[in-house]
From TrEMBL:
It comes from Meloidogyne enterolobii (Root-knot nematode worm). GO terms for molecular function: ATP binding; protein serine/threonine kinase activity. ATP binds at K60. Keywords: ATP-binding, Kinase, Nucleotide-binding, Transferase. The keyword Isomerase does not apply. The keyword Secreted does not apply. Gene3D superfamilies: Transferase(Phosphotransferase) domain 1. PROSITE patterns: PROTEIN_KINASE_ATP, PROTEIN_KINASE_DOM. InterPro entries: Atg1-like, Kinase-like_dom_sf, Prot_kinase_dom, Protein_kinase_ATP_BS. This is Protein kinase domain-containing protein. It holds the Pfam family Pkinase. GO terms for biological process: autophagosome assembly; regulation of autophagy. Residues 31-206 form the Protein kinase domain.
């Protein structure tokens, strides 16, 4: 039986369209949408399938009261790709967006960094696990350094670092700012307090 393209391998006959969406969703026997990947203050993200391009996507739906947040995230991505030369690989890329529905179609990941570490911890011995953590940490520092040439993420945490085939990619740029757009002392949201960087807390954006 044909299945979806990601590691979840959901049978395609379980997917169907809703309303006039170009994407299909998995439903349970009661008619409820399944495949919720995450939910935040401004949006929900679902596992969806595009029969048009024959691939799985992560579809981010913004709640109706968060039009500005949707617009800022779309505009940030456009400007970030423009300034970075559109050749940066280690972020979750957007495929397209729909202004009317407040939705963004993105790459879908296997899991977040937290889940990845938990799996490696249970499957590796201590030395193998520490070696993997060291390698991923070094690689992430390189990735974040490249991103910070152009922008500041503002909400980096394990849940916003996604893994695709064992490679980390930075996700969720909802709070992110293009560096040249940031004004010292500007009043804006930072993201998750527990993961806030010292330079943001001190309004020192470099």
């Amino acid at each position: 039986m044909p299945t979806c393209s990601c590691h979840r391998k959901i049978p395609l006959n379980l997917f169907r369209n809703i309303a006039d969406s170009e994407y299909s969703f998995e439903f349970d026997i009661y008619g409820n949408i399944r495949g919720l990947l995450g939910e935040g203050a401004t949006a929900k993200v679902y596992h969806a399938f595009s029969f048009k391009i024959n691939t799985c996507i992560a579809l981010k739906y913004f709640f109706p009261n968060f039009v500005n947040e949707y617009t800022e995230e779309v505009n940030f991505y456009k400007e970030f790709m423009k300034q970075s030369g559109e050749n940066i690989q280690n972020i979750i890329h957007q495929f397209n967006h729909n202004d009317e529905k407040l939705e963004i179609a993105m790459e879908i990941a296997d899991m977040d960094l937290k889940g990845y570490i938990e799996i490696k911890r249970s499957n590796y011995n201590e030395s193998e696990f520490l070696f993997e953590v060291f390698n991923q940490t070094a690689y992430l520092l390189f990735v974040i350094s490249n991103i910070h040439e152009v922008a500041v993420h503002m909400d980096l945490k394990p849940q916003n670092i996604m893994m695709i085939n064992g490679i980390p990619k930075i996700a969720d740029f909802g709070f992110s700012k293009i560096k040249r757009w940031i004004k010292k002392g500007e009043d804006f949201q930072y993201g998750t307090f527990q993961f806030m960087s010292p330079e943001l807390a001190n309004f020192d954006h470099g």
